[in-house]
Design brief:
Blueprint (H helix, E strand, L loop, with lengths): L6 E7 L3 E8 L4 E2 L4 E4 L6 H15 L8 E5 L3 E2 L2 E2 L14 H9 L3 E5 H12 L8 E7 L3 E7 L2 E3 L8 E2 L2 E2 L1 H4 L1 H6 L4 H19 L3 E5 L19 E3 L6 H10 L3
Parallel strand pairs: 1-5, 5-8, 9-14, 14-15
Antiparallel strand pairs: 1-2, 2-3, 2-4, 6-7, 9-10, 10-11, 12-13
Length: 252
Amino acid sequence: MSNMAIKAVGIDIGGTGIKGAIVDVSSGKLLTDRIKLPTPQGGEPEDILATVLEIVKRLDVGNKKDPIGVCFPAVVVKGKTLSAANVSKSWIGLEAEKLFEKGLGRNIHFVNDADAAGYAETLYGAAAKSDGLIIMTTLGTGIGTALIYKGVLIPNAELGHIQLDGVDYETRASYSAKERENLSWVDWAARLQQYYTALEAYFHPDLFILGGGVSKEYKNFLSLLHLNTPIVPATLRNNAGILGAAALAAGR
């Protein structure tokens, strides 16, 4: 293996902020500081594209051949966004990858944000030494999930929408549900127990990775879960989307 950095750009579009950096995808290290700008009010595609263009300009990505990966909170199939979370409904059914390629004047790779984060954790983070079937879950406003089998991403797994007790279970077990209902860690863990037990029954994974902002507080609730599958907190935090998007764009 040469020690040459393999460079790619990762852009992570969220409901409140858009961030980007140049990444060495061979090591998972950021080669620049992260640049973060607020997500434009309303989250319209053209406005978000303009913000991404500004980030790419500030990163001074001179080489048009450097791959660019963009992760986004939507189901993404063949470059088309089929859903929209915390952004404008105009993303639904949009040829997002084509729009961004035209705007940026280069090839890009568009990917779901949970998929990017899960992929990054398997390459550089919590699951870097694991094999088999890995399920990443991000507990936030909803529950985002990513499935990775033997290092291959199986895209657009929307396992937060599993029906339990007659409801879309992310409405009960997401971190926002804990906050909305003012649940104690113990009461929330009981709901997580039900959720992860269902995932075990359906998939029998080798490892769960727990992501989302609340993963920083894992000591308050992970030990309350009794699962057959090991569960570990994510380690890449706010860089996971950037790293995963860049790695997928570079074909890492």
